[in-house]
Amino acid sequence: MTKTFTFAVMHFSIAFGVVYAMTGSLLLGGAVALIEPVLNTVAFYFHEKFWNRWEHRRARPTGLEPPVFRA
């Protein structure tokens, strides 16, 4: 969960900086910086869960692999 939190802080800072640079508005920069990173952080969390499950399933033997013969 620490990785997700630090990602959120980084994302908040980037989102605020980009929108503020484009608009000059603290209010708009703050609003976008709060909404967009929250949604991306939630998406990132589920993205990580999906990939962890995917990698685990790919690593699990299915029983269909050819036998390995060792000399």
Give me some keywords for this one.
mainly alpha; 71 residues
What this model shows, in words?
The protein has 71 residues and is an all-alpha fold. The chain has one domain. Helices cover 79% and strands 0% of the residues. It contains two helices and no strands. The chain has helices at residues 2-23, 26-59. Helix 1 (2-23) runs antiparallel to helix 2 (26-59). The termini are far apart. The mean pLDDT is 87. This is Membrane protein. InterPro entries: DUF2061_membrane.
User: How much strand content do the residues show?
Assistant: under 5%
Helix content: over 70%
Order of helices and strands: HH
Any idea what the shape is?
rod-shaped
Could you give a short account of the major beta sheet?
none
Radius of gyration: 21 Å
Find the structural class using helix and strand composition: mainly alpha
Unreliable spans are none
Distance between the termini: 46 Å
Mean pLDDT across the residues is: 87
Number of strands: 0
Summarize this structure briefly.
The protein has 71 residues and is mainly alpha-helical.
Topology:
Blueprint: H1 2-23, H2 26-59
